Amino acid sequence: MALLLALLAACSAGAPTATVAPTPTLAPEPTPRATGLLVNEPEAFEGYTLFTPWESDLAYLIDNHGRVIHAWTLRHNPRLVKLLDDGNLLTIGNRIFDADGNAVWNYRYPQHHDLLEMPNGNILSLSTVIIPGEEAIGLGANPDSLACPSLWATHIVEIRPTGPADGEIVWQWSALDHLIQDFDPEKPNYGVVVDHPERIDFNFALAEAPCQDDLRLDWQHANALDYNEELDQIMITLRRFSEIWIIDHSTSVEEAAGSAGGNSGKGGDLLYRWGNPRAYQRGTLADQRLFWPHNAHWIPRGLPGAGNVLIFNNGSEYPGMQRGYSSMDEISLPADGSNYRLDEGSAYGPNEHVWTYFADPPGSFYSNTQSGAQRLPNGGTLITDAEAGRIFEVTREGETVWEFVNPALGYQEVYRAYRYAPDYPGLRGLDLTPQDESDLWRVNWWLKSESYRAAYRAAAAGEPVARSVFDLHLTDGEFVYVKEACDQKDTESSFFLHIAPERTDDLLQERRKHGYDELDFGFFRYGALFDGKCVALVPLPDYPVAAFRTGQQNQDRGDLWSAMFRLNPEPYRAAYRAAAAGEPIARSVFDLYVTGGQLTYVKEECGQEDTANRFFLHIVPERADDLPQERREHGFDNLDFDFFLNGALFDGKCVASVPLPDYPIVSVRTGQFVRGEGEVWSAEFALGGGMPPP
Q1: Contact 551, 560 (CB under 8 A)
Q2: What are the chain's domains?
Q3: Cβ distance 312 to 372 under 8 Å?
Q4: For the segment 561-573, what is each residue's pLDDT rounded down to a tens digit?
Q5: Helices within 461-596 (DSSP H only)
């Protein structure tokens, strides 16, 4: 093996000691092209390592020899998996699966990045609160820093599972309840930031945060949380603040929203923060210790370094503020009972690490995003180098004694891995015999083929609900994509799937204004190739569905194909019959009818391509006062719509229906347009006498 440098800072297994000067130690040189098991020395902690490839719906448990011991097909992209004491898997999305991959709990609540099971059996879940930009400005945000229509802030909920798809939120905390700002003295939360390190500066990092999907400003980007039962405290890792925060969980819900109460007496205010004193105006870039970190957590009781905090310090940040290499940093907290020591006018300590690890040259170990670590019973540290799909164990002296690289080429990223001791309770119900297939790429297809063959047989027994490049079937609670003569090229472009519910209230809050759920996925996550066929399976949501729109997209060429269908087209058939009994008000690419208080669009010979472009609909009222306030200067109401939400294809026809307003209408102008290119067609008509339609 070739050589690397790692860093050693002296520390006993008990109480922390001061950091000493770095001592060079040996570690293997990375081998980017090699995959699978690369290193397995006798000093490695013997156990079972759990991980999931980033774009996969599979989770793997491997032994120290790199052999697959158990695998779960989860039918959704879990990204993060944790093995519970009862042998079930906890995954992103507030889901729990049994050993066979069956969902035993699936609670619909916005969730991202991290969650954990608490000692009382409740689930502590990282979520987000979303507010419009106008509301953020009303709370003291600098409007020049808001490049998005809405802002996301950290929200944490504790959920008590009450049924297979139910739960009760018994505790919650929101970052928006603990703000301070020095931008506008006329707005709430105004104060002197440097005097209030327990509060969150609303305008820190706001200008640098990117606008994602032209929709949301991901201001803080919390990516991990941990719970300390002895302290009854929660630790949060904030990527964009380059900090860790600690808050008091012993509060009531009301106290968590304020600044008094709980064991600390400080309510939901920050008890401690570390990594970037610039965030509370008590330091400069030279004082910064964390750079977009991940997975900060207390080292559990009974392990070397117990009570200290272990952090994956990614080393990345905004241009000009990047360190450019990753490290594992262990620190000792300045605890003072239920609070933490802070000298007047200074930043929170410590100033030194208890232990740290990085490579030589430093940039040879650098994961810009994701990643994590775990302290092992032998004193070693299991590190997940997410972007390289690399999981490795280092000793206290920095020597690599175990190394494994995910062999699923093209899907190598591993968000975070965990190793479980052979006597861990959650392993008791699993067959720990190594599987015959040792190559994870082949295991992937081997595991999936039988369930996908069964889904194919069930689909092929009936008629597809829509046909395109892929035939689309609905069967046994799943949406099934089938292509009979298929190869790898047919699966390389990303799939999109839009699901319109019967009731908009069934959508998560952030999707309601769009009117549909959106899922973009790669075939690897949901598909399998076998016998020259391609089959993909997507589980249907647990709410009543009205319509689907799906297809594939190429980054350079747009939609490669699409298909749309409505599960119950009968209301549209009825609208067509009512319209066809009379004469159209206007004719164009679509014929237009007014009947029963609705404007109905009809095209007799019609296909998907006729519905792809957005429809515009402008309504001119008899009285301008009937318009919403924001539309009065325009003189007409804008009811633009998507055929997917207002239309149906059946019997070779396309029919869309839009309810007309209840005020008297003078005229209507409508048609279809392509954004940036203008109108495809248009039609105008007057409604005589300014009377509303019958």
Answers
A1: yes
A2: 4-117+220-430 (2.120.10), 443-566 (2.60.40), 579-690 (2.60.40)
A3: yes
A4: 999 999 999 999 9
A5: 523-526, 570-580
